[in-house]
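hi!! sorry for the late reply, been swamped w classes. u asked for the two structures so here they r. pasted raw, havent cleaned anything up. first the sequence of the first protein and right below it the tokens
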Amino acid sequence: MSGAGNGGDLRLEFADNALVIPLFGSHNEHLARIEQKLDVVIRTRGNAITISGPGDSVDAAREALNGLYARLERGLPVTRDEVDAALRMVTAADGSLADVDLAVRTRKRHISPRSPRQAAYLRAIDDNDLVFGVGPAGTGKTYLAVAKAVERLTQGAVDRIILTRPAVEAGEQLGFLPGDMQEKVDPYLRPLYDALHDMMPRDQVAKRMESGEIEVAPLAFMRGRTLANAFVILDEAQNTTAVQMKMFLTRLGENARMVVTGDLSQVDLPRGVRSGLRDALEIVSGLPGIASVAFTEEDVVRHPLVSAIVRAYDRVETRRQAGARYTSDGKPDDNG
């Protein structure tokens, strides 16, 4: 590919005509997305384009398109989600499309970070024995951790994957649920199964679970064990107590990696019970071999409305903590 700029215009030419169609998108939808997000104008002529607009925006568009083209050269797909991820990377102060080299490779897919904090999270998992991933839903905390676990298992870097969650949520106790123990805990662990099936063929998941290479179990089953040669993920950690969290963290054995994920805005513990996740972040953060990554609504990679919903809840929670009064519809009560 080549590029030449003149003032507010920049020309890019892509050498491989076969990659131009997936790069531009059906009816140039990817280019339209870039125009919309960066406030630039993109004109096409064959396998060349001209980008016009403010200098910083033109540079960001060039970096995004070159990065997406490089992705296609490596045989990876470019969809609207990848376009949005590239734009998120090039417009963030701490982002770089070089972070796509952090892609996690599993049997069913290659997963690239879609925000600078996702890239930092993957680097942290590579470089530390214990990593905390904290933030709102939809930021990829658990999904990326499971992807890393599957990658490590298939590479032979660990002997097994252990996925666990506290099995009490929203006031529901296991003993009151129907079925045997496995049927009782499965609903709590379903998101972990879903992530596994997204990374590996279903028959492989079943085979490895039968052999013990993959274990999905409630947190209570971790007590008394030493988890060695394993990649261990504790999900929904905001719903652990301080005692449970200490029990879990002290299971770490030789050649093991732990990732702890949670959202401190969605604690379902009884009132007055301190979250073990919050406790651990205060106690062990900063110790050698431990890292924490705090995600925000900017890292949400689900439907765009999810980011807006998270922001709205955060604003209301901030006002409530400041002692503001509200009407029945959640708006500030100016008369209060």
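now the second protein. again sequence first, tokens right under
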Amino acid sequence: MTNIISALDKAFDSRVRLGIMSILSVNESADFNTMKQLMELTDGNLASHLKALENIGYIQSAKQFIGRKPNTRYMITESGKDSFKKHLDALEKLIK
């Protein structure tokens, strides 16, 4: 049982981070406001979790303007995809 638990990635301990990674793993990208609405989070709460995932290289961001409004899109990185898949595999083993 210890090996299964050690395979879990601490970066995904938070349900918010699980939600972010789930959204980004099935979409090419998602913008800040879309994720905020889907997960019903405050700006600050979402921003802090996005920054944490970006700092460890699991996601990346691209800033642009749509009209006069700033828009930040997030994409999952290859490292993020691999780590998230390993985490989900470990969860599945733990459940079984």
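hope this helps!! also noticed smth abt the second:
The helical segments are 2-6, 15-26, 32-39, 43-55, 78-95.
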